[in-house]
Amino acid sequence: MFKDFYAQRGEYVVISAEQASRFAKGVAGDYNPIHNPDARRFCVPGDLLFALVLERFGLSQTMDFRFLSMVGADTPLRFDEANDGTIHVSDEAGKCYLEATRSGSTTHEEAAVDAFVRCYVAFSGKNFPHYLKPLMEAHGVMFNPKRPLVIYDSMGFTLERLDGLSPDLALTRSSLEVLGKRADALLEFSIQSDGNPVGVGSKKLVVSGLCDYDPEAMEAIVAEFYRLKAAYEASNR
């Protein structure tokens, strides 16, 4: 399903900066500069790791993901399932970047997995400016405009059923807890299928390097987001 966004080298998966950036922009609609191939602090989108976990291990009714560290370009990654069912994404040295737990029924049906991944990733890609900007503005804080850093911390969801899924996600509640120079953002969402509720979930983000909210600086960042979006879409028509 997502084979265009990684290379399989023996037991390892390798994701290039170009592949990661293409997934972020083309699938998630995420124009965070940290996913640009030439970014000094480049990292692979957490949503791509999420997609590859589901591609390999299927979609379970209840799943929880913890993003433990940022993945650099061309890092060989192993996707392993422990005896207790915990899934780990680790490098050659054993450093773990993602840990996932799951319970309930599991489906490996490609159409269902693909639909859920793409639906969630499209929702997740709206972190900024759609969800985070109003939260930061309401609390009078924002990330450093010169070094904006928003880190994926964790996410989880529960589904009532897996059969006949035609998923659609919608934000139901958002909150921001300011903790000195950082803040934890919690995004809660509902999951529907053909207009009927089938599940709920949430996602936690960490916003680092907080400073006072600056409307002009924020507007410049938002304008750059939409400039990058327009440029990408124009080049891929």
Explain how this protein is built:
The chain is α+β, with helices and mostly antiparallel strands. 30% of the residues lie in helices and 38% in strands. The protein has helices spanning 17-26, 46-57, 110-124, 127-139, 215-235, and strands spanning 7-9, 12-14, 59-67, 78-81, 87-90, 96-107, 141-143, 149-159, 167-179, 182-193, 196-208, 210-212. It has an 8-stranded antiparallel sheet. The chain has a two-stranded antiparallel sheet with strand order 1-2. It has a two-stranded antiparallel sheet with strand order 7-12. A hairpin with a 5-residue loop joins strand 4 and strand 5. The model has no long low-confidence stretch (mean pLDDT 92).
Low-confidence stretches: none
Strand arrangement within the widest β-sheet reads: 4-5-6-3-8-11-10-9
How far from one another are the termini?
22 Å
Portion of residues within helices: 25-40%
Shape: globular
Quickly give the structural class. alpha+beta
Taken as a percent bin, the fraction of beta residues is 35-45%
Total count of strands: 12
Number of DSSP helices?
A: 5
Average pLDDT works out at 92
Radius of gyration: 18 Å
Largest sheet: 8 strands, antiparallel
Order of helices and strands: EEHHEEEEHHEEEEEEH
Brief overview:
The protein is an alpha+beta fold and 237 residues long. The chain contains 5 helices and 12 strands.
